[in-house]
Amino acid sequence: MSIVKRPKQIKWSHPITPAQVQTLIRSEPDTHKLSSANLFNPAESLLSRIRPETHQPVPESAFLPLLRSYGRAHKPLDSLRLFELMKTHYNVEPTHRSYNALLAVLVAENQLKLARKVYNEMKEAGVSPTVASYNVLIKALCSNEKNLDTAIRVFRRMESADACTYGTLIDGLCKNGRIEDARKLFDEMGERKIEATVVTFTSFISGLCKVKHLDEALEVFDEMGKRGVRPNVVTYSCLLDGLCKGGRSMKAMGLLDRMVKDRCPPNMISYSSLINGLCREGRVLEASEVLDRMRLQGKKPDAGLYGKIISGLCELGKANEAANFLDEMVLSGISPNRVTWSLHVRIHNMVVRRLCEKGELNRGYRVYQSMRTRGISIEPESFDVLVGCYCMKKDVHKAAKIVEEMLVEGCVPDFDTWSNVLGGYLGRRKVKEAVEFMWDELVGEHFGSQVLDMESELETLSNV
């Protein structure tokens, strides 16, 4: 393996004696101070001074904190460089501790090809893989569905496996839909008296939920309590999401109450799964209650969650309640992102139309004005509803004003919209205003065909 160039040696702010260097190296907490603070150059500079100033070899343990710290800083190639430097420059023979530390860094940073090379090198060097070594290798293999069978073969060659080994395999199998294989391993853990951790339980429950085996997932969840394993927020969230997607949102509501009772505060994922599930089942009022609980806990709902509830309330005909949530969202400064923007536009238009249909024209118009001010696109149907409602209220001038704004927005009114406005004028015998409106607004290169139709209708109506 090629070695990256060694970092430039730094100058210390004050002289450090050989005795101090030795003290630093022997003191693991002090070694961690440099590496955990991401002071990589000072740490390597310190390592380089050990041999010339103390006339003693650098111990392998001195490299381990820095190897791991490079990994935490997402610098796997520097971990590999330091490992090679340890062998060639410092003449330190790596043991399974160094190999395991390096393998863990490479796998965590998805450098799987390098991880396999290091593993093969370890075997060639006569370093026997430990359980930790196998666990890292199995984790790397499980990251690719094609390598799952290889991971199982490696697992079967192990003389002894621990809970981490089983957990890694079960997680990989569940993520790739191989629930039967995962169930066999889970049962095998019980037979071999290996206690499953909360991570293993969570992986298995998540896998069962993905394949809609919800009753079994609930049984495994109950088994956790019997074995004294306390579920965490991820466990609860996986089960909540599975129940909601499986159309059992009311069961999920009970699970949320149990979650709070167990002093496991729900997170954004927990609440989002439940709100989305309730809205899918038409239980919008319950979803709005969950949103209130979410706010009381100090969690800030996003535009997507508000959009789901507002849309659901509109479909139930609860226009004012929907408008209240819309006002609350705007006043809270909650803005949509690129993913939720289309929903954001749709719910605003939906609220305008539902308010108008419910006779709340003034409030609908205020939402419409707010949309124009904030640059939210207004759909043609929203314009049409507003114009029709104002014409019905005999407020033809307001209807005509909306048509003008409609044209400014680049939206061409249809025949019915023009007819409503002209009919409003003519209904009040304002023939002059109708003619002026028609010629001011309709005559143009884009509306010539509509003008001919309107002239005919105007002549008919004026003779009535």
UniProtKB/TrEMBL annotation:
Family of this protein: Belongs to the PPR family. P subfamily.
Organism superkingdom: Eukaryota
Keyword Repeat: yes
UniProt xrefs under Pfam families: PPR_1, PPR_2, PPR_3
Keywords: Repeat
PANTHER family: PENTATRICOPEPTIDE REPEAT-CONTAINING PROTEIN 3, MITOCHONDRIAL
Residue windows of the PPR repeats: 95-129, 130-161, 162-196, 197-231, 232-266, 267-301, 302-336, 344-378, 379-413
PROSITE patterns: PPR
Originating organism: Asparagus officinalis
InterPro entries cross-referenced by the UniProt entry: PPR_rpt, TPR-like_helical_dom_sf
Name of the protein this chain belongs to: Pentacotripeptide-repeat region of PRORP domain-containing protein
Hydrolase recorded as keyword: no
